[in-house]
């Protein structure tokens, strides 16, 4: 049974670099997902200039295939992969759960899924990978080298602000300077 490994990053550029490194290590595009806010979000073609370029090996195909989707409570994001497809499908069909349901159905703890979703709402990016148990240490090493957000610290920060869980009906957050 595949494991799902998920990490949140402060910015899209870091997440894209992680996706590229996972692809270069031989993880399949079909097992990698990325959802986040690109700093050049006003760009009308989300796949163009995805930070990698279609000519390189690894996850270039995944990143070149980025699309713009709107997720309830998060707003427009660039996204690619199985997690993005599940979240977009849930949103389009008004299915319960949206991004939280997509993450929990992939094995992410529900409490953690709320923090991941909130981190994207506030301008971060999430990379999620499905992999065999024997490759999990390699994947975690790649993902952790990029200094992901410490989710326990981030949850505590949010809770100090009065946050309790991700709210799909909330107004999308606009990070200062974006």
Based on the structure, what is the oligomeric state of the protein chains? Answer: single chain
Portion of residues in beta strands equals: 15-25%
The largest pleated sheet is described as: 5 strands, antiparallel
Q: How big is the Rg?
A: 15 Å
* CA distance, first residue to last residue: 40 Å
Which structural class should the secondary elements be placed in?
A: alpha+beta
In DSSP terms, counting alpha (H) and pi (I) runs of 4 or more, how many helices? 7
Poorly predicted runs are 41-58, 91-96
Describe what is shown at a glance.
This protein has 178 residues and is α+β, with helices and mostly antiparallel strands. Helices cover 39% and strands 17% of the residues. Strands 1-5-2-4-3 form a five-stranded antiparallel β-sheet, sandwiched between helices.
Provide a descriptive summary of the structure in words:
With 178 residues, the chain is an alpha+beta fold. Residues 41-58 and 91-96 have low confidence and may be disordered. It has helices at residues 12-24, 60-64, 82-92, 98-105, 110-121, 136-145, 151-160, and strands at residues 3-9, 32-36, 67-71, 75-80, 125-131. The longest helix has 13 residues, at 12-24. A 5-stranded antiparallel beta sheet has the order 1-5-2-4-3, with helices on both faces. Strand 3 (67-71) and strand 4 form a beta hairpin. The chain is built from 7 helices and 5 strands; from the N terminus they run βαβαββαααβαα.
């Amino acid at each position: 049974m595949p494991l799902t490994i998920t990490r949140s990053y402060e910015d899209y550029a870091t997440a894209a670099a992680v996706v590229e490194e996972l692809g270069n290590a031989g993880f399949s595009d079909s097992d990698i997902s990325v959802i986040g806010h690109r700093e050049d979000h006003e760009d009308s073609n989300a796949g163009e200039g995805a930070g990698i370029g279609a000519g390189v090996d690894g996850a270039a195909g995944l990143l070149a295939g980025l699309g713009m989707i709107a997720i309830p409570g998060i707003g427009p994001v660039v996204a690619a992969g199985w997690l993005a497809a599940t979240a977009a499908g849930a949103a389009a069909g008004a299915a319960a759960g949206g991004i939280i349901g997509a993450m929990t159905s992939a094995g992410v703890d529900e409490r953690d899924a709320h923090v991941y979703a909130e981190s994207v709402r506030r301008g971060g990016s999430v990379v999620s990978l499905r992999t065999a148990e024997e490759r999990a240490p390699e994947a975690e090493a790649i993902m952790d080298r990029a200094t992901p957000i410490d989710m326990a610290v981030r949850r505590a920060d949010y809770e100090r602000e009065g946050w309790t869980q991700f709210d799909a009906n909330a107004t999308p957050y606009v990070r200062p300077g974006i």
